[in-house]
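User: Continuing from earlier, I have the next pair ready.

Assistant: Great, send them over.

User: Here they are, in order.

Assistant: Folding the first of the pair now:
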Amino acid sequence: MYHKTIIIFLIPLVLVMNCKSEISEENQLIENAKGIHERVITLDTHCDINVKNFTDSLNYTQDLDTQITLPKMKVGGLDVAWLIVYTGQDSLTKTGYEKAYDNAMSKFNAIHKLVNDIAPDDIELAVTSDDVIRINAKGKKVAMIGIENGYPIGLDINNVEKFYKLGARYMSLSHNGHSQLCDSNTGERDSIWLHNGLSDFGKIVLKEMNRVGMMIDVSHPSKESMKQMIELTKAPIIASHSSARALCNHSRNLDDEQLGWLKENGGVVQTVAFKSYLNTEKYEARDKVLHKLRKEVMDSLGTPIIERGEIANISETEREAYYSNFIKMRVIVKEKSKSMPDLPPAVDVTDFVNHIDYLVEKIGIDHVGISSDFDGGGGIEGWSDASETFNVTLELVKRGYTEAQIEQLWSGNLLRVLDEVEAVAEEIQSKE
C-alpha cells in the first residue's frame, strides 16, 4: 500500500516534469531561431508596389494595409525587399509600349523617391551584393528593383541598359500573356503560342541583359521560352517567384525537367508563398467558402471582383484602383474569417516549406531561395505580411536546417547568382 501511494504520487509529478521539459525544448528552439533570424540577411525577391503609396502624405514609413511597409519589415525582421516594376500585358503596338514605358518609369520614380526623399534614413537602394551587406550592417532596410514583364522595353533595345542604370537587377520577359519578347506560361490554357518560345527581338534583349548584368527571370515565361533562354544565356538565371510543379500542378511552377535545367545552369528558384501555387486541394477548399465573402466585400467597396486571368484586360488605371480595393478587401475578409465556423484550413507556412524541402532534395540547397509575392496576390497563413517573416525561419529550424543553410535560402544563393551575372557582364564588356 505504501509503495502504491508513492507510485500514484509520482505519476503526475513525472507528467509535469515531462511537460516542462517539452516547453523548455520548444522555448530553446524558438530562441535559437530568433538568433539565426537576426544574424542572417533575409531577402524577399518579389514585392509588388502601388505608386499611390509613395507620396509625401501616404508612404511606407506608415503602417499601411499593404503587406510590405517599413514598420512591418522591422517587426518581422525582413532585411531586403525587391520592389517590383510591374506592367500588365497589353497590345503589342506603339501606343501599348508607350503606356507601358510610362507606367514602368512611374514605378522606378516611386522607388527612388522612397529611398532618396521619403525615408533615406531607414532604407537604401542596393544594386550589388556588396551594397546589401553594407546597408544591412548600418541597420537600414534594403530596397532592390526587379522588373515583372519586359513589355515596357517596347522595341527599343536601349531601354534595357536604361532600366539597369535605374537600378533594375532582374527582368522577366513576359507576364500573364505573350509579350513582344517571349511566350507566357498562360499559353498552356489554350495551347496558342505567339513565338514558340523567344521572339527574335527577345533573343536580342536576353543577350543585352547578359551584357549589362541583369538577371533573367523565368517565373512567368513558358516552358519552351525558358528552355531557349537556358540555351542562349551566358549567365545563371532565376525564377523570382515560383514553386515546385510536382507538388502543385500550376503552370507558374517549375516541373522537374525545368528544375534540372535551372540546376545545370547554376541558377536559383525563389520558392513563392502564393496559396494556389503551394497546395491546390487546401486552397480550393477554403477559397470556395471565402469567394462569396470576397465578392460581397468587393461589391461593398464599389469594385466588382475580377478573376485573376481577366485583370490583364483592364486599363492600368483601373488595375491600380482594383488592387487598392483588393488589399482593403483582403484585410476585411481576414478579420471576418476568424469567426467563421468550420472554415477549411488555410495554406500555411508548413505547405510553403514543404516546397522548399522538395526543391532542396531535387536540385540541392545551392539553388533554392525565398519570395512572397506580397501585394501581388501572395501571402499565406503564418506569413501573411512582412511582419510575420520570422515564422519562415522558425519552420526551417524546426525541420533541421542549419544556420548556414538558412542563410543560403534567405539570401546567399540569390546574391551569389547576382555576383555571377555581374562577372559575366564584366567579361562581355571587356571584349567590346
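And the other member of the pair:
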Amino acid sequence: MAGFDFLTGTKRPAAGTPVLPAQGVRERLLGLNRPTAPWQIIDGATEKVDLIAEWRIVDAQWFEIFAKAGLKKVFRIYMKLDEASHELRAMDREYSVEWSAGIPNLSLAVSSFKGQSTSVEFGQAFGFTETLAPGQIYKYKFNSNELKKPIQDTVLACGWIYKGVAFGKL
C-alpha cells in the first residue's frame, strides 16, 4: 500500500513497484501534456529546476477562458528529480494575475507562502447568450489538484516518492 505524509504532502509508491530511471520519470511526466488540459508541464531549466507544471494562462486557446473567469491567483509546481533517492521534490509557488486588455500579467504573490497548497477558483456568469436568450455564459472551476494529482500518480507509478517541499531547497 502506498504511504502518505499529511504534513508534507509526501507520497510513497506501493511496495514492489518497479523503479524507473529519472529520464523515464521525466518522459512520463511530459507525456501527461495534452491539448485539452488547462495545464501543462514544461522544461524548468530557465528556473533551475527539472520541470514546471503550470496553468496554461498565457496559451491563446486558454487565456480567454481564464480572463473571463477573472482568475486572480494561479500557482506553479516547481519539480526536481533526485535520482539517488528516487524522489521528485515539488514546491508550489503562488502568483497573482492582473489582466490588462484581456492579457495576463503574472507576478509572484505578495505573501510569505511557498511550499504545499491546494487552491480552488470557481465562478459563473449569466447574461445574454449567442442566441440572445438569457442563460449561463460560462462556468469554471480550477482546482490545483487537477494539476497535482496526475503528477503524483505518475511519480508513484514510476516507483518514485513524491515529496512536497515547504521550506529549504528543492
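Worth noting for the second one:
The two ends are 26 Å apart (CA to CA). The first strand starts at residue 3 and ends at 5.
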